[in-house]
Amino acid sequence: MALNIGTQIEIEIKRLGINGEGIAYDNKKAIFVDYALPGEIAKVEILEDLNTYYKAKLIEIITPSKDRVTPFCSVYFECGGCQLQHLSYQGQLKLKRELILQALNRYTKGKIKFGLVKETIGMENPYNYRNKASLPVMFQNEKTTIGMYKPNSNHLVDFTTCPVQDEELNKVYRLILNQMEKRKIEAINHGGVMRFIIVRRAHHTGEVQITFIVKEKEEKVRALGKYLVDKFDYIKSAYEVVNSNLKNREFFTNQIKLVGGEPNINETLGGINYKLAPNAFFQLNTPQAIKLYEKVVSIGEFKKTDVVVDAFGGVGPFAFYIAPQVKQVFSIELEKGSHESLVDTIKTNNINNISALLGDVKTVINKEKIQADVMLFDPPRVGLGKAFTDFLLKYRPKKLIYVSCNPSTLAKDLDELLQAYEVKNITPIDMFPHTSHVETITLLSLKTA
Q1: What CATH number is attached to the domain comprising 385?
Q2: pLDDT tier at 280 (50, 70, 90 boundaries)?
Q3: What is the mean pLDDT of residues 364-368?
Q4: N or C: which end of the chain has fewer CB within 10 A?
Q5: pLDDT exceeds cutoff 90 at 96
Q6: Does a structural domain hold residue 1?
Q7: What is the pLDDT of residues 306-347, one digit of tens each?
Q8: Catalytic pick from 79, 82, 162, 405?
Q9: Percentage of residues in the chain having pLDDT higher than 70
Q10: Shared domain check, 260 and 140
Q11: Which H, E and C letters describe the chain, residue by residue?
Q12: What is the CATH number of the domain that holds 247?
């Protein structure tokens, strides 16, 4: 019998879902409850019946989990930026491995032994780790604010500090808001042009880049960017990006203008100096990124004769870590800004065995007739997809290294690749502590028989 909306019941939470929500069952139908943990007995209220599952609100924890902790952020239950602050950090690391196991169980049906999934690599200090933020701007409560939208709403939860962001980013945002008030630069919902403010800070050099996403050109915004670069030595780069499509979730358009300082900021990683444009992808957690790249080198067991394709190469960090171990790396990237950053970085560091190629991976490989021994890929959350796995099954490099940020799409892709490859190991790594996200490194080798 179905549960009615508004019904309050006691349930036992069986596991956590991919978004960090607790999952219980009533007559084999799942009940999703935010902020509930496995093993807990909880009183909940049914909010929605969505045919295949219920959504419920947590009313009371009757029997708490031993892993339950008090969140360290004052707006945690409003913000939605983090999903797991109520779970101990060791509990989070265990959960993230379990999310991988759940996905493998669902999509590969026992074809991959769970023992191949290693323990999650965590952080020594899982706070203030994000070195880039893209925050919306809104006028509310008689002031201009930045923050995060409450999940599934248009309500902006404003904050002047965020405990998972680099504290220097927090300082820069407070500085910008102060200057916006002085200069009467208004948010878009208060008759102004400002939509988003993106701040990136290089972890090792301390250089800061600021990008203003605006509805239309605004001289006061450009003057602010120039002022910030001229006044503060550590702010090296400021841009204005005009994006008038208010429904467009993409920040960057072709209307991008440098309004102060240098086009790029510099970051150093593994002895390589990177030049980062505002729209170039770079890992947001530098200490964990170093562990990620080093782990790829470790499990890859590269040979000096290897030719490697770094698909979806971005600004090339994997390529630079791998290059000293191999004969040649072809780093392929579709996004022009990241490709240009990679080209600059290769020149700056005088690397002669990395080739930066712009375009679609399959098209470039066929055009250049690249014969790879190893292919590495770090795709978006949507994964590789059937078209790309079909390509790999025909192309057949001896070894694949799959870096994934989505357990479900990873498992789906692995199920396809198992036609010709065997999984050697899967290593989860926690790139975003206190969130439900988990990164993994999977090593596959071509079957010999």
Answers
A1: 3.40.50.150
A2: confident
A3: 94
A4: C
A5: yes
A6: no
A7: 999 999 998 999 999 999 999 999 999 998 888 988 998 899
A8: 405
A9: 100
A10: yes
A11: CCCCCCCEEEEECCEECCCCCEEEEECCEEEEECCCCCCCEEEEEEEEECCCEEEEEEEEEEECCCCECCCCCCCHHHHCCCCCCCECHHHHHHHHHHHHHHHHHHHHCCCCCHHHECCCECCCCCCCCECEEEEEEEEECCEEEEEEECCCCCCEEECCCCCCECHHHHHHHHHHHHHHHHHCCCEHHHCCCEEEEEEEECCCCCCEEEEEEECCCCHHHHHHHHHHHHHCCCEEEEEEEECCCCCCCCCCCCCEEEEEECCCEEEEECCEEEEECCCCCCCCCHHHHHHHHHHHHHHHCCCCCCEEEEECCCCCHHHHHHHHHCCEEEEEECCHHHHHHHHHHHHHHCCCCEEEEECCHHHHHHHHCCCCCEEEECCCCCCCCHHHHHHHHHHCCCEEEEEECCHHHHHHHHHHHCCCEEEEEEEEECCCCCCCCCEEEEEEEECCC
A12: 2.40.50.1070
pLDDT in tens, 213-226: 999 999 999 999 99
Is 90 part of any domain?
no
- Same-domain check for residues 193 and 301: no
Q: Does 73 participate in catalysis according to the annotation?
A: no
Q: Please indicate, yes or no, whether residues 354 and 410 belong to a single structural domain of this protein.
A: yes
